[in-house]
Specification:
Its main location: membrane. The protein has helices at 3-17, 46-50, 72-86, 105-123, 126-138, 142-161, 168-180, 182-193, 198-209, 229-250, 253-316, 322-333, 338-342, 344-359, 364-378, 383-393, 395-416, 442-468, 472-478, 496-507; strands at 24-29, 33-38, 57-60, 64-67, 217-218, 221-222, 421-423, 437-439. By secondary structure, it is mainly alpha-helical.
């Protein structure tokens, strides 16, 4: 089967399992997930969906998210959209597939779904909803950040090796062009997210990167192009949205097309030049200085806390607050020192999954899930392992966090000793982060420290889970072989008389 046919087949398999075209209200994707808006969540057949070979897991948040993995999701999404547009809206989805064993991958996945639903309910607070909106501004930028980051790393390697001197300036332009104008893209997305006209948000944010701002003085200082960066762009576009909405309420329709854009750019632009750029620049500098101070004075301890708490932050939705911080650090230093430390949480999760695989030697269902989800986990896609294995089990999730803590402490220690380990883009982790690594002491040492940190995370997660992840009662229950329906001795555990008869037969 060709690649195109394979992706079409995946989309065609997913559509009926989410309730058909009539049940789909919106289709989008991020780096790894197909994000669907659904009319009726009860029509989704979770277990059949998760059983599809291409599906790595599902996550229920404000949208229903199907984890397909990097690359695959970008190819499946347009096929899915085409099917939704062309589908016969009268078709009905197949009935749900019931039936699962007491302690199997399916039962754990059901528990994981319940935990996701509970998390979604907890996350419906104004603060967390605001963080989600901030994430919606930056997540669409991640593919460009990754692509430009990898090109920047390749260019740095060629420059250090003195290879292809005629090509490296072109690569530098490709790598730097997007970052030089990232404020404009942030402005566009901010206006779109908060209900304004995207191009007006981009117009206001573009003031920040215009070279002529060097002639403007604010707070007794000359401004510099790019001052305030993405934080300034976010604030400028947000202000522009509210000015635009005010104009829409009060400006007569006959002159709206002339007055509203002019007033929006004028008012928000003046506020940006004579206030926001300076203030956002100070905040950006403070964030960079705080990150440097934190890792240079308490790198191991800070790394331990960051690596250990990142998975719970993800569960609470608070990790979204880190996206603007990562972007600000990349703007200022060229890389973010926080992401390689946070990536150790995924390493602890992988180590924990391997320990679970060995400890549950008789649970073929859970072991099969781990085998299929482990490779995505190594590449930084951890949702299948988290929601399908460790989180429903409880204790292994805690020991996975312990593995991330030790891996984070290892990388943080080297930052404390002067070897900065950073990433030129946000998004991937695990092995997928290697092409994006950058640091203060050359690529060789940077890669070595990050790789060693992964090994520490794997090992710590494995050991913590193997020795402390299960009680004796848990091991007894989880390793119990599921009943064979074809066995006449098999008894329904819900039928006390049948169970008693089965035990009597065993004694005979």
């Amino acid at each position: 089967m060709s690649e195109e046919n394979k992706h079409h087949a995946t989309a065609a398999a997913i559509l009926p399992l989410v309730g058909g075209a009539r049940n789909v209200t919106s289709v989008a994707h991020c780096m790894t997930r197909l994000r669907l808006g659904l009319r009726d969540r009860s029509l989704v057949q979770d277990e059949r969906l998760k059983a599809l070979p291409a599906v790595l897991g599902v996550v229920e948040d404000d949208t229903y998210q199907i984890v397909l993995g990097p690359g695959t999701v970008a190819r499946v999404t347009p096929e899915f959209e085409a099917l939704v547009r062309a589908a016969d809206t009268g078709s009905e989805p197949d009935g749900p597939d019931h039936g699962s064993d007491a302690v199997t991958a399916e039962s754990l996945a059901a528990q994981g779904a319940a935990l996701r639903a509970e998390r979604k309910a907890r996350n419906a607070t104004p603060f967390k909803l605001f963080l989600r909106r901030i994430a919606n501004i930056f997540v669409p930028l991640i593919p460009a950040l990754i692509g430009c980051g990898i090109i920047a790393g390749l260019n740095g390697l060629l420059v250090n090796l003195h290879w292809l001197p005629g090509v490296t300036p072109a690569l530098a332009a490709m790598a730097s062009g997007f970052m030089a104008l990232i404020a404009v893209f942030v402005g566009l997305n901010t206006a779109k997210e908060f209900g304004g006209t995207p191009v007006l948000g981009g117009a206001v944010a573009s003031i920040i990167v215009y070279a002529g701002v060097a002639d403007v003085e604010a707070f007794g200082q000359q401004l510099s192009p790019g001052q305030g960066g993405v934080l300034g762009a976010l604030g400028a576009a947000w202000l522009g949205v509210y000015v635009e909405k005010w104009c829409r309420r009060w400006v007569p329709e006959s002159v709206d097309v002339l007055v509203t854009p002019t007033v929006t750019v004028l008012v928000a632009g003046l506020a940006t030049l004579f206030g926001l750029m300076f203030l956002a620049g100070e905040v950006s500098t403070l964030i960079g200085d705080a990150a440097d101070w934190l890792l240079s004075h308490g790198g191991a301890g800070a790394g331990f806390l960051l690596g250990g708490l990142f998975l719970p932050l993800v569960m609470l939705g608070l990790h979204q607050a880190l996206i603007p911080i990562h972007t600000t650090l990349i703007e200022g230093a060229g890389f973010t020192v926080l992401l390689p430390i946070l990536a150790m949480a995924g390493a602890g999760q992988v180590g924990a999954a391997i320990a679970i695989y060995f400890r549950l030697s008789r649970n073929t269902s859970v072991r099969t899930t781990i085998r299929s989800a482990l490779w995505p986990g190594l590449l930084g896609v951890g949702e299948p392992l988290i929601y399908g294995v460790s989180l429903p089990l409880g204790r292994p999730f805690v020991t996975a966090c312990a593995g991330g803590a030790f891996g984070g402490a290892f990388v943080g220690l080297f930052n404390q000793l002067g070897t900065d380990v950073g990433s030129t883009a946000i998004g991937p982790s695990g092995w997928a982060l290697f092409p994006l690594l950058d640091g203060s002491h050359g690529m060789g040492r940077t890669i070595a420290v990050y790789a060693a940190g992964l090994v520490v995370g794997y090992a710590a997660g494995f050991l913590a889970t193997y020795y402390f992840g299960f009680t004796k009662a848990m091991l007894t229950e989880l390793n119990a072989a599921p009943a064979d329906p074809a066995d006449p001795k098999a008894a329904d555990p819900a039928d006390p008389k049948a169970a008693e008869k089965a035990r009597a037969d065993e004694k005979v």
